[in-house]
Structures are given as C-alpha cells and as structure tokens.
TrEMBL record:
Pfam families associated with the record: PIG-L (PF02585)
InterPro entries given in the database record: GlcNAc_PI_deacetylase-related, LmbE-like_dom_sf
Lineage summary: Bacteria, Bacillati, Actinomycetota, Actinomycetes, Micrococcales
Name the UniProt record assigns to this protein: GlcNAc-PI de-N-acetylase
Record keywords, A-Z: Zinc
C-alpha cells in the first residue's frame, strides 16, 4: 500500500516500514500523519530513536528524569498512530555522529526488520529553516543513508552481522523528511489523519510550553505542503524526498 501522493514514484505495495529519527518528537512533526495512514491500512511500522533527547525540554526539575520522560512520551505518541515497537539506540542528545558504530547499529536493525521502506531524516541542511537541520538530524540522515547503500545489501560490510544471522538484502525505497524544500518530490495527503498527528504531538509535553501555538504552526505548515504538492485547497500534506534504492533496472554498484 502506498499513501496517496503526487510526484515521485513510490512503492506499489508496502507491508513493513522502519522509521528513524534523531530525537523523540521528530517523527511526530515530520511523518506521523503518513505513519497513521500506513498503519490504518494494515502496514507494520516500527520506530527507531537514535538519541534519548536528554538535552531537550525547558524545566530544570526534569533533568534527572528527562530520558525516561521522553522515552515514555515517544512510546505513547507512537501508539496513537498505530506503532507498537519503538527501538532506542540511546546515544547522547547533541553528540550523534554518522560513525561506523552508529551505521552498524542501523544496518543491523534494518537487516533484522527487513522493511520495504526505510524512512529517515534528511542528511542535507535546510537553509530556509535552520532549526530543521539540528546536527543530530543531519547525522541521523547521513548514518541511515550510508547504511542503506551499500552496507545493508553488502554481505561483506560488517560481516559478523551476516555470520550472526542478519543477512544482507536489497532495500526498495528510502523516504527522507525534514529536508530542503527543493528536494521534496512526494506529498502524502494526511487530512484524514491530522487529528491523530496532533494527538501524537501532544504527548511530548516536556517539549511544548505553548501547545496551542505549536498546533497552529503545524497546521499552517501542512497546508503549505498541501498547496506545494498540488492537492485541493484546504488539504493537508506531509512532504518527502523519495529515493528508489533498488528497482527493476538497478545494476549492482551503479
């Protein structure tokens, strides 16, 4: 199943998706409506959070409990859009790098889940809105992109993974979010899932001192994406850079 969208070619049939984010709430801002569309159609979606978001929040009294708090917030948010499994890699907020350690963790998880689609943050900086390009966001996107090709499909990359039963396989599509507008080539109409997206975002109370302003901002952004995606006036959309990693005409190494 592929959500209704326009632009880039997307997979005709999706049964399993693995979504990566740098911090708790990144996926809810960038893709929760699309995730809810997938899960409502019976697609299995899993999340992977690379950092614990320990540098987030506004209340000094939360410092000792912020990791536990943000993990719980993310699990509650995920459940509201039909996601039961949330993986936490546990890296320190603000220190994420696309190192071999992180790439190997990503490769291992992708090989374990064996999804049709991997969804991750964009590795390119957005100069129009720099806040979208937190260094951890860029590191998340770069680590996942490095993992997707060539390591996931190369049995000689991190060979101990294959020896341990995590065999290489060819991923179909990589979907990237929170990147430059110029890269967006696929828009998903999430009008019917807007309430679920907002409910998910509301779970991250440690991050939103003004919930009303946050919700107004999100709706405005989704309306803009709907227009940019050529949807009917008033429709809401999430936008992605869809990359076909392996298609019918893909030649190994090219």
């Amino acid at each position: 199943m592929s959500p209704n969208g326009t632009g880039a070619a997307a997979p005709d049939a999706v049964s399993r998706v693995l979504c990566f984010a740098a911090h708790p709430d990144d996926l809810d801002f960038g893709a929760a409506g699309t995730v809810a569309t997938w899960t409502a159609a019976g697609v299995e979606v899993q999340y992977c959070l690379m950092t614990d978001g320990d540098a987030g929040g506004f209340d000094p009294d939360h410092r000792d409990s912020i990791v536990e708090m943000r993990r719980r917030e993310q699990q509650d948010a995920a459940a509201l859009v039909g996601v039961d499994t949330v993986h936490f890699l546990g890296h320190r907020d603000g220190y994420l790098e696309p190192s071999h350690e992180v790439v190997e963790q990503v490769v291992a998880l992708i090989r374990e889940v064996r999804p049709d689609v991997v969804l991750a943050m964009h590795p390119e900086r957005d100069w129009e809105r720099l806040q979208r390009s937190h260094p951890d966001h860029l590191a998340c996107g770069e680590a996942v992109t490095r993992a997707v090709y060539p390591a996931v499909e190369n049995p000689y990359s991190y060979p101990h993974l294959a020896e341990g039963g995590l065999e290489a396989f060819k991923l179909s599509h990589l979907w990237l979010y929170a990147g430059p507008r110029s890269r967006e080539n696929h828009w998903v109409d999430i009008t019917g899932q807007f309430a679920a997206k907002v409910s998910a975002l509301r779970q991250h109370l440690s991050q939103h001192p003004d919930v009303g302003r946050m919700e107004d901002y999100v709706r405005t952004q989704l309306e803009t994406k709907g227009r940019e995606g050529g949807l009917e006036p008033g429709r809401l959309a999430e936008a992605f850079h869809v990359v076909e990693v392996n298609g019918p005409d893909t030649i190994a190494g090219f």
